[in-house]
Each structure stands twice: as C-alpha cells, then as structure tokens.
Design brief:
Number of domains: 3
Strand order of the largest sheet: 1-2
Structural class: mainly alpha
Strand content: under 5%
Largest sheet: 2 strands, antiparallel
Shape: globular
Helix content: 55-70%
C-alpha cells in the first residue's frame, strides 16, 4: 500500500505509470505465501483499477522468470542438485474464492474501523438526521438487496459492530479483541496483528479515505455476488436447452445480471467485459 502511494503519487505519464505498476507487481511476485500474495492482488485491483486477470497474467510472467532465475542459480552452485520447488503461478480466483477473500477484508475493516463515522447528518425517512459508521454503512447498503456475508463469524462481526455503533465512543477494535467469545476474540486479534492484511487496509487518518475504501469493499462484494450468480445462470442455461420458455427467462436474467456487473465494474474502475 505504501509502495503504491509512493510510486504512483502524481504520476500521469502512461509509460511511467506502467513501469511503476510493473514494479509493484514484480514485488508481489517475490512473496512466497500464496494467501498473502492473493491479498495484495486484491489490493492492487482496488487501488490500481486494473482487471484481476491482467494483474495475474503479469504476475505469472514474473513468477516464471523467478523460477528460471532460481533454477539457473541453484544449478550453477550445485549442477547435480535439483532446484528446490518454487510456488507455481496463480490462477484467477474463482467467484467463491474471491467472495471469501472480500468478506475477510470487510470483516477486518469492521474490526479495525467499524465504529468510525464516515457519513454525517444523513437524513432518514422521518426527517431526522443520523451519523453512519463504517459498520452501519456496510450493513445498510447490503440490506437494500438483502445481501449477507456468508461466513457466519464475519456476519456476526458486522452485526455486533452495527448494533454497538449506536453507543457513544464505541471502539470496534477494543470491543472485538476483548470479546468474551474466545473464538471471536482470537479471530479479531489475528486480523489486527496480521501485518500484511493490516497494511492492505491501512487507512490514512482521513475520513474521506476511510469512506472511499469502505464503499469500494462493498462494491467488490456486490460484484463478486453478481459474478457468482452469472456462473450459476450459465450452468442453468446449458441445462435448459430445448425448454424455450425457461431458456428465455434465464437469458433475460443473465442479460440483466451482466448489465449490473458491468456497471459495478465501471464504478470500480475495472475493465468492462461482455
């Protein structure tokens, strides 16, 4: 996150920006832990506005280059000793894997910043005005379309943070790391202490930055939900050949889901796909 800020701040020249992006992706390719690496890929998708498949394709080129360089280095030292195995290139995350990854990022955002106010004086239906915290905004936005986090622990974190955000001075991080439920407390503590993940969510002490990051995560969640629905619809369409009425209905739903997916991609700054 720091490297992204340093290398891309104020850079408008396309060539220099491309060089900076390549340098960032090359740094990620040096990370052996695939979970940590996948987390940074997701961060790049969010911060750079580049399609995940493009990032992974570039990343794999660097990984293959690393493998070749490592092999040559080891063989030069010990010609008869086979090179040690190195992590294989990544494949793009499945909709289920991506959804799980984004849910974890949302839960960590809530643990670290759930009680922080990001919207002031929001007018309600009865004309009164309220402030919205990170947790309240996420909960409200997802509830509009009856969306929920699938992971029960992450869903509980969001639910409790939303409820306690009504209390003055609520500190989400302290609340969850000292939670009476030992399992929940341990998970929250790991989220706070997990340096790579924590760095990927490191927010400058600016309300606008926190608001933008929160909105981006919610859009990511919605896009992943739609991607999973599109995959399901594709499977249903392939099974419905010959049933014209059902096929017509599925195709209409698929077209609408594509429209929503492309609109979300546009708002996220990703490539729009057909």
């Amino acid at each position: 996150d720091f490297k992204i800020d340093v290398m891309l701040k104020g850079v408008t020249d396309p060539i220099k920006r491309a060089e900076a992006v390549n340098s960032i992706i090359k740094s990620i390719s040096m990370i052996n832990d695939q979970i940590v690496r996948a987390t940074y890929i997701n961060l790049c998708v969010q911060r750079l506005g580049i399609n995940e498949a493009t990032i992974i394709s570039t990343l794999n080129k660097f990984i293959r280059s690393n493998i070749e360089s490592e092999g040559k280095r080891v063989q030069a030292i010990a010609p008869n000793t086979p090179a040690r195995p190195i992590d294989q290139p990544l494949s793009p995350a499945t909709p289920q894997e991506q959804s799980s990854r984004v849910e974890k990022l949302i839960a960590q955002m809530v643990v670290r910043h759930g009680g922080d106010i990001i919207y002031h004086d929001v007018e309600t239906e009865d004309g009164s005005k309220i402030n919205l915290s990170v947790a309240q905004y996420i909960s409200y936005d997802l509830s509009i379309d009856d969306l929920k986090l699938k992971n029960p622990v992450f869903a509980r974190i969001l639910e409790e943070a939303t409820e306690h955000s009504k209390e003055a001075g609520f500190n989400s991080e302290q609340y969850f790391t000292h939670h009476p439920d030992v399992e929940l407390s341990n998970i929250a503590s790991k989220m706070v202490m997990d340096v790579p993940l924590a760095e990927s969510l490191r927010i400058k002490n600016e309300e606008e930055s926190l608001r933008n990051e929160t909105e981006h995560l919610v859009l990511d969640f919605r896009k992943d939900f739609i991607e999973a629905r599109l995959a399901t619809l594709k499977a249903e369409i392939s099974k419905s050949m010959g049933d014209n009425e059902k096929l017509r209905s599925l195709m209409q739903e698929y077209a609408e889901a594509q429209r929503i997916r492309n609109e979300l991609a546009r708002r996220l700054g990703n490539d729009i796909v057909s």
